[in-house]
Amino acid sequence: MNIDSLSQINSYLSFKLGDDEFAAHVSKVLNILEMINITPVPRSPEYMKGVVNLRGTVLPIIDTRIKFGMTPTEYTQNTCIVVMDILMDNDTIQLGALVDSVVSVIEIENEQIQPPPSLGSKYKSEFILGVAKIEEHFIMILDMDKVFSSDELIMVMESTDEA
């Protein structure tokens, strides 16, 4: 399957952060892990919870709620780690995003996605691709490559190297 056919897929993984529902394109999602012990990394950014060992690879774990300006994640039996592929300067890195719960894999057609609200949004709109209304609720579609700036990813990768 080539990149063009991947971008034609309209499947998204939806997950909850607080009362809000977000979605990431399935081409970015590698795995969903149950909560495991996260090793803290000294002097890392506040939103970086630490690292885990994923099949012999050091995987940085990000508290998505902190990254989005929300209160830190409170661990419950539904809290999990969504392992994602993030594109940074033509290179792909993997990181784990803490989410309150995974909801489902949903199909969202491009015409269902409306532009993100420009004013008063409590989230940084540069990483929201759009908003889809599914049944009676809204899901914010994320551009996972833009959630983290190159500078932030470099900082995360450097603190991971030190771990």
Structural class: alpha+beta
- CATH architecture designation: Beta Barrel
What series of H and E elements makes up the topology? Answer: HEEEEEHEEEEEEHH
Q: Quick check: average pLDDT? A: 85
Domain tally:
1
Oligomer state of the chains in this structure? single chain
Please give the alpha-carbon distance between the first and last residues: 35 Å
Question: Helix and strand layout, with pairings?
Answer:
Elements (H helix, E strand, L loop, with lengths): L2 H6 L2 E7 L2 E6 L3 E6 L13 E7 L2 E7 H4 L12 E9 L2 E9 L1 E7 L5 E2 L13 E7 L2 E6 L1 H4 L2 H13 L1
Parallel strand pairs: 2-11, 5-7
Antiparallel strand pairs: 1-2, 1-8, 3-6, 4-5, 6-7, 9-10, 10-11
General description of the model:
The chain has a single domain, classed as CheA-289, Domain 4 (OB fold (Dihydrolipoamide Acetyltransferase, E2P), Beta Barrel), CATH 2.40.50.180. The protein has 4 helices and 11 strands. It has helices at residues 3-8, 64-67, 144-147, 150-162; strands spanning 11-17, 20-25, 29-34, 48-54, 57-63, 80-88, 91-99, 101-107, 113-114, 128-134, 137-142. The strands form 2 sheets. It has a 6-stranded mixed sheet with strand order 8-1-2-11-10-9. The protein is globular.
Quick rundown:
This protein is an alpha+beta fold and 163 residues long. It contains four helices and eleven strands, in the order H-E-E-E-E-E-H-E-E-E-E-E-E-H-H.
Keywords:
single chain, five-stranded mixed β-sheet, 163 residues, six-stranded mixed β-sheet, 17% helix, 4 helices, alpha+beta, disordered N terminus, OB fold (Dihydrolipoamide Acetyltransferase, E2P)
